[in-house]
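FAQ

Q: What does a record look like?
A: Structure on top, sequence underneath. For example:
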């Protein structure tokens, strides 16, 4: 597949072959197909990051058929920076392709001071999306999520806010993130009664973090809700980059907010090494196998990846070349993970 030369950052024209290799999967019981790989802007799109590289990443993603860009109000740093930078890139490169894109944002974590800039009140969610739309220069987002459960606000209020946002024309679809199986079932029931069905759930899910298997995926199947798995590579642990130490550009060294050196134990590295050997036997690297392992379940609509380099995107997309697992491979993986 021919990819445009982005180094000079000439005026952008998307690859004519962008839909030839990407695979798409229907999102629950809806009219939406999502690419099996989606691009998240959680990391690498703040004001401290290289703007030129951000443009390169988004261009390369779309050229590879990745039509879904995932943001949130507080992605940065600072809060709001990812949406601001995405808005600048959208204006420069992607306005002609807006109707080919699924753009999502979220609210639910701390965003501004005081009692109205966090959690799940109607005031917070409506105000936050208004701010997000201004930062991105959009009239609407395709998907708007409540980013996390709020134990203090009635679920009826939070879901009612999502319904209102759709009726206002500020979002086409709504979703939830990190809700438990029980919470998801209740939220889906409320939204269905309001007439705005839940399109998608965004759980943290990987080979090393499997809480979604404890009932949540069953609820999603029953309710016809799609899913997008985030942190599929466990903040880089499932790339194998830590098998020979701690690279200076790795997340455990550079950031430390979500992954620390102390959390990468010898026991964990032993599992990663064993998984890496299976991946090599499959003709994949570990990251590719970790993505394929998630996508083996049809209830996973798409896998959300974050990258810092354009070549990482192509590497992730190449995981789609080998999605099938033998019974023996799955058994060996289970033995390793449960050891």
């Amino acid at each position: 597949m021919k990819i445009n030369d982005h180094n000079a950052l000439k005026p952008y024209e998307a690859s004519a072959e962008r839909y030839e290799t990407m695979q798409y999967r229907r999102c629950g019981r809806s009219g939406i197909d999502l690419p099996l790989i989606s691009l998240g802007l959680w990391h690498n799109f703040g004001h401290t990051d290289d703007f030129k590289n951000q443009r390169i990443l988004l261009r390369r993603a779309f050229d590879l058929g990745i039509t879904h860009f995932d943001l949130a109000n507080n992605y940065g740093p600072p809060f709001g920076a990812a949406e601001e930078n995405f808005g600048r890139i959208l204006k420069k490169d992607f306005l002609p392709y807006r109707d080919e894109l699924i753009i999502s944002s979220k609210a639910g974590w701390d965003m501004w001071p005081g009692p109205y800039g966090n959690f799940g009140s109607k005031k917070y969610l409506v105000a936050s999306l208004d701010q997000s739309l201004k930062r991105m220069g959009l009239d609407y987002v395709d998907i708007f999520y409540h980013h996390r459960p709020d134990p203090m606000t009635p679920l009826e209020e939070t879901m009612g806010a999502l319904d209102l946002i759709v009726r206002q024309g500020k979002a086409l679809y709504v979703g939830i993130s990190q809700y438990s199986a029980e919470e998801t079932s209740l939220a889906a029931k409320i939204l269905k009664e309001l007439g705005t069905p839940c399109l998608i759930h965004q759980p943290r899910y990987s080979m090393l973090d499997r809480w979604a298997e404890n009932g949540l995926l069953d609820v999603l199947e029953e309710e016809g809700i799609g899913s997008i798995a985030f942190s599929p590579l466990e903040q880089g642990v499932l790339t194998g980059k830590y098998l020979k130490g701690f690279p200076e550009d790795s997340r455990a060294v550079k950031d430390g907010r979500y992954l620390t050196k102390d959390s990468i134990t010898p026991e964990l590295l032993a599992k990663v090494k064993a998984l890496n050997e299976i991946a090599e036997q499959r003709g994949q690297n570990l990251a590719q196998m970790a993505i394929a392992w998630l996508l083996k379940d049809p209830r996973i609509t798409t896998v959300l990846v974050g990258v810092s380099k354009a070549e990482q995107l192509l590497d992730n997309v190449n995981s789609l070349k080998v999605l099938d697992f033998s019974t023996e491979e799955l058994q060996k993986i289970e033995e390793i993970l449960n050891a």
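Q: Is there anything notable about this one?
A: The CA atoms of residues 201 and 227 lie 5 Å apart.
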